[in-house]
Write a structure and sequence with these properties.
Number of domains: 2
Radius of gyration: 22 Å
CATH architecture of the largest domain: 3-Layer(aba) Sandwich
Order of helices and strands: HEHHEHEHEEEHEHEHHEEHHHEHEEH
CATH topology of the largest domain: Aspartate Aminotransferase, domain 2
Number of strands: 13
Strand content: 5-15%
Strand order of the largest sheet: 2-10-9-8-7-3-4
Structural class: alpha/beta
Shape: globular
Distance between the termini: 70 Å
Helix content: 40-55%
Mean pLDDT: 94
Largest sheet: 7 strands, mixed
């Protein structure tokens, strides 16, 4: 007689550990204190604390509403003009390289997922070097693609700078065919980027070790400038025959909820790149079939219109200017915050313990990640002094 065995059911699933940043957003939203400061969520805020729709984006949406005559499917690659317009901004002189192909994705997250799954299709044994701390979704995306992450200590919290010797040691130990995941600029969560000399050294090591670079560039234009923020990536493209690039428009066009990104891939030949793109399209077909159109169509409309493109560049300059002015103001407020002026982009990590972060939350209604990572652009102009006072206060206890 056969003995019945109990099969696993959906009800037998283990609980999922929630994303700490998503949990933080929920906590901040539930706090009704009028003095609340939320520097956890990574969105741009103006001097009054609002996250406005960019004027150029709003105008493009109006044009799109007037001109769009169908919502029919565009196909698996989405808006094919959109990545061609992003390419010169992101890739510079490499935009005309026929070996580099791009397609629209649902945000930078979609681009990274496609890139990692393409690596799995080509080389399931590849290991992925990931410097910690990093964006919380990097490691889950690597693991979700069936690849093994190899982590190293990217950031020296005491010195507030990149642990470049550790990074180079990790690259030096990697085997041919393994992957190096690097943020192209405005590092999330530390704000600590590689300088030009370090980019040159790590690029040379990637070539020597025959590694595959994956560059995640989600904040172009919010650090030192559009050209400057892409310089490391372009050096990689100069030197390497195979490169994967994940790009996002969410931050520099302010279209967060529309999820707008691109994946670009380069191989040693046009034919090989076409084959790789075919695999990417098949993977995308199995996940989302076709990417949502609205956000990419809006960005395309901005970039196609001379006046809107000019206005977007002016708005982006203003956003970057706000980043720089807030960094300077914070750095000048206290000697222990001086390092903030030396870093780039939206994020930095304060020298705080989880207990101190909790105290800020409970006593001062200030919300940030337990690591001390905070969004500089989350500060309204009139909140800076209170923020600094509270942070310096808990640091001194």
């Amino acid at each position: 007689m056969l003995t019945a065995t109990r099969h696993r059911r959906l009800a037998d699933l283990d609980p999922v550990k929630s994303d700490s940043l998503l949990a933080l957003i929920a906590l901040a939203n539930a706090d009704t204190r009028p003095e609340k400061i939320d520097v956890g969520v990574g969105v741009y805020k103006d001097g009054s604390g609002r996250t406005p729709v960019m004027r150029s984006v709003k105008a493009a949406e109006k044009l799109l509403w007037e001109r769009q005559d169908s919502k029919a499917y565009l196909g698996g690659a989405g808006d094919t003009i959109f990545p061609k317009l992003i390419a010169p901004i992101l890739l510079g002189d490499h935009a005309d390289d026929q070996r580099i192909l791009g397609l629209q994705t649902p945000g930078g997250c979609g681009a990274l997922t496609l890139g990692m799954m393409l690596i799995t299709a080509a080389n399931r044994e590849a290991r992925v070097l990931v410097g910690l701390p990093t964006w919380p979704n990097h490691v889950p995306i690597v693991v979700g693609a069936g690849l093994e992450p190899v982590t190293y200590d990217y950031y020296d919290r005491d010195a507030h700078k990149v642990r470049f010797d550790v990074l180079m040691a990790a690259v030096g130990e990697a085997r041919p065919g393994h992957v190096v995941l690097l943020q192209g600029g405005c590092h999330n969560p530390t704000g600590a980027d590689l300088d030009p000399a370090q980019w040159a050294d790590v690029t040379a090591a990637i070539v020597e070790r025959q590694l595959l670079p994956v560059i995640d560039l989600a904040y172009q234009g919010l650090g030192r400038g559009l050209e400057e923020d892409a310089a490391g990536l372009r050096g990689i493209l100069d030197a390497c025959d195979e490169v994967i690039v994940a790009q996002s428009c969410d931050k520099n066009f302010g279209v967060y909820r529309d999820r707008v990104g691109c994946l670009y891939l380069k191989t040693e030949s046009v034919e090989a790149s076409k084959i790789a793109l075919g695999h990417v399209l098949q993977i995308a077909r199995e996940m989302w079939s076709m990417p949502p159109d609205h956000g990419a169509a809006v960005v395309r409309t901005v970039l196609e219109d001379v006046a809107l493109r000019t206005e977007w560049l002016q708005e982006l300059d203003q956003m970057r200017g706000r980043v720089l002015s807030l960094r300077a103001r914070l750095a000048a407020a206290h000697p222990e915050l001086a390092f903030i002026a030396t870093q780039n982009g939206m994020f930095s990590m304060l020298p705080l313990s989880p207990a101190q972060v909790l105290k800020l939350r409970q006593d001062h209604a200030i919300y940030m990640a337990d690591s001390g990572r905070f969004n500089i652009l989350g500060l309204a102009d009139d909140a800076v002094d209170r923020f600094v006072g509270a942070v310096v206060g808990v640091m001194g206890e």
